[in-house]
Write a structure and sequence with these properties.
The protein has helices spanning 20-34, 52-60, 94-98, 116-127, 147-152, 208-212, 220-241, 253-264, 272-280, 282-287, 308-318, 335-339, 355-360, 362-379; strands at 6-9, 39-42, 63-70, 76-83, 89-93, 132-136, 156-158, 177-179, 191-195, 268-270, 291-299, 323-330, 344-347. The chain is α/β, with parallel strands linked by helices. The strands form three sheets. The chain has a six-stranded mixed beta sheet with strand order 3-4-5-6-9-10, sandwiched between helices. Helix 1 runs parallel beside helix 14 and helix 2 packs parallel to helix 9 (272-280). The protein is elongated.
Length: 380
Amino acid sequence: MKKDLVIVLAPDSFKESMTAKEVCVAMERGIKKVNSNIRCIHVPMADGGEGTMQSLVDATGGEVYSLEVVGPLGNKVKAEYGILGNGEIGVLEMASASGIHLVSLEERNPLITTTYGTGELIKACLDRGVKKLLIGIGGSATNDGGVGVIQALGGRLLDKEGNELGFGGGELEKLDRIDLTNFDRRLKDVVIEVACDVSNPLCGENGASYIFGHQKGASVEMIKILDNNLKHYAKVIKEQFGKDVLEIAGAGAAGGLGAGLMVFLNGNLKKGIEIVIEYSGLEKKVKNCDMVWTGEGSIDFQTQYGKTPLGVATVAKKYNKPVVALAGRVGDDIDILYEKGIDSIFGIMRGVTTIDEALKNGKENIERTSENIVRLMEML
């Protein structure tokens, strides 16, 4: 084996067990047990969902900040955002402020949940002078078309009497006009990229309300109301701003937040893994390495659809680098992944165990598996 081997470690988090950074550290510990001369380059990854902010901050040597914002139900919650290492790029996950995990099953009601807190996170990034914003929009508890964000940034949504609308998708039926007189002017000078892996339109049977409303607590009747309200919202937008968001792919993401970000913040929707690959600097690091290791909690045939391991493998194959993937669970029909760029897949479990034990022992299992892989490599 080459003496001065360089390995890029680019895993996703193992959810509920390890962050992507912690996976990198455990991988390196196992590798170094066998060969201390191997150089490991850590590039913590994510696919645009949970963990994206932390991964990009870790990959660039940035900083995480926390603040109290308005939660989905109008209550106060603690949320986080990050500033990447260059100090010019902010990154946030809407779920941190407006996520479904912040609302109990009994309280879920998209007629009243708001994205206001996400707008407050955006404002906090603007206050730090960012030139670019990366926003992940998965895991929402909302169906308000992003109007909460507009309100938090100074916009006013008014009914026919000039009264401001309250929070939630249930209020949109009253919308008469949108006043952007006091909308945060700093947004005009900021480039906004949105991590969005769904292509649902705003309304209709494949839209935000019908596809995602039930999991957010909407009844069949509520879904009809929400869908009609978003149609009315789109109608007002078209009449007032000349933009038709009704059929745009991705407009229905996060309860219509996709539409709101596109119209009012000029957001550009991109696949989450593409954003993370770009801003983590993965390609430059892979270009000059000898091999690449990746992984996530579960790898199966669904991994081919925009998940981290395949995204990493796609970059690696541009430069003919071998790719090893580690997973807590290796599922069915993984042969397609070998065809698409992953050379070898290893499960890290050492025997039958409970889920709690597997999560608790994740770092140890990653370390042990990494050690065994390198021992095999040393034999070649």
